[in-house]
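Issue 218. Parser rejects a valid record. Input:
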Amino acid sequence: MIILIHLFLMVLAVLLLLIFRTIQLNHSPDQKLFEKGTLPSNLNGFSKGNVFPSNFGWKGKIFDSNTNLGINLFRIGQKQKEQFPFETYAAKGLTDKNLDVLAIDYNIPQNFFLLHLILDELVQVEPNKYLGKLQLKIIPSYPFTLIFFRLEQ
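Output the parser choked on:
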């Protein structure tokens, strides 16, 4: 019984942290900029990525507009490695219901099951500059926003 109580408290703590982070980001300058963005078109090839304050080795994303597929690019030591493939499609934002976004969906068979819970949304904020939002979908109809990221072609 004690183990179940501890497990419940840990899950509750994680959910509270996710809720707090989502509220924090929903009131950030990045969210205001995201809401003004437009649906990207013809995103193709490599886009250099940036996550403030650290990129943790993430270099960006590679898009193929012909197949609507892509993959993330990481630097691990001296090598570059492609990991975490995705598919792309136009959609309405999960939390920004009136905003057209490019959905970057990791819910594909090649990814391990936890990645299936992640959906990035991308908008264009300037010519060749994009702002993305990483969403975690663990509770139906209530995605958690974890980070904003930038891409530049």
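Fixed in the parser; the record now loads. The chain has a mean pLDDT of 91.
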